[in-house]
Amino acid sequence: MSTNIDSARKILGDLASTRSNREELYKYFHQHPELSMQERGTADRIVQQLEASGIPTTRIGETGVLATIENGAGPTVAMRADIDALPVKEVSGKDYASTATQLDEKSGTEVPVAHACGHDFHLMSLITALQAFNAHKDEWSGTFIGVFQPAEETADGARAMLDADLKDVMPRPDVYLGQHVLASLPCGYVGTRPGPVLSSAFSVKVVVHGKGSHGSMPELGVDPVVLASTIVMRLQTIVSREVAAKETAVVTVGAIHAGTKSNIITDSAELLINTRAYNSAVSEHLKEAIERIVRAECVAARSPQEPEFTYYDRYPLTDNDGDTTATVREAFDAYFGDEACDLDAVPASEDFSIIPDALGVPYTYWGLGGFADLSKAVGNHNPAFAPDLQPTLDRGAEAIVVAASAWLTK
């Protein structure tokens, strides 16, 4: 392992001399965020930066980018970075904070946009790692692939790249890697864990039907507001009474939409439900239980029509391969020392595993600490989420090179 780490240090030897330029490029991406599946400017700038460094790129779909460095015989390592941003108005107070807005092509409305999840750190870290590997080809052999993936936030991006024939363009990797900047780790730390690291998730829109009436004559109608309320309360028993204590599950009703006026009993109600689980069997049970409870409550309420279920935002379980994770952890321990740590399972969800699962490739996904003062750190998707520029920017690139070097510098 010492030889691998020595090579990784040499590959990373330009970090200090390139830091100023990299920080400026990071600020550009931070100030020019783009919504999911609309990352055209982001993809264009990624291609521009890489091709200026002599790194060949291929567009996958409209906004996905594949960068491939072939350097003789050896393993093939792929590293993924997500590139989309969120419809959030940034309030971080940074002097380079985003003030961008963008037309949401789905809704047709202009919305504020910010990298409130840290994807700008991810894509910058991967650009830096690609440039480092390309500049020091004498220190490694094999193939290193950068996968710049759109639309992680909507769970559309990984599937879109596969639909755009990613399999036919990308050399099949021996291992697939990913990382995410987090507020739960100290700044500069990298955290790993084997097994489930990010939960599976799905959302479902449920529409239940009633019978409209005047608010003074409820006996003539079927009240879907009361029906929706009983469903919300009954759903709480799924986790407390149907999921084993050793398992983890979340069922959240994030929104109820019904009615227009206090004295009108409306004829339908809509519930938006989200779930999380670290076990595919538990996730399937949540789906079955939600439908069972909704249907039963509709029967009890004399609903005149069957409920409607529309599923969306489906995220698979991110389940780190044990051997791959052990290899990366050993490299992290050797390079980062005490700043390599165990990562607790994170209840958030990702579409990262869709591509390696489709390719039949082992993968591992780690966390990157982003805030020096954890007492002031805010979680991903918070409008104030903006990790400390350094050492986060350097550490993200270091983590990629160190992890990939465990295969490429043997």
From TrEMBL:
Assigned keywords, A-Z: Hydrolase, Manganese, Metal-binding
InterPro entries found in the cross-reference section: Amidohydrolase, Bact_exopeptidase_dim_dom, Peptidase_M20, Peptidase_M20_dimer
Pfam families in UniProt: M20_dimer, Peptidase_M20
GO BP annotations listed: diaminopimelate biosynthetic process
Cofactor list: Mn(2+)
Annotated Mn(2+) binding sites: C117, H119, E153, H180, H381
KW Membrane (keyword) present: no
Free-text comment on the cofactor: The Mn(2+) ion enhances activity.
GO molecular function annotations of the record: metal ion binding; N-acetyldiaminopimelate deacetylase activity
Highest taxon above the source species: Bacteria
Sequence ranges assigned to domain Peptidase M20 dimerisation in this UniProt record: 201-299
Official protein name in the record: Amidohydrolase
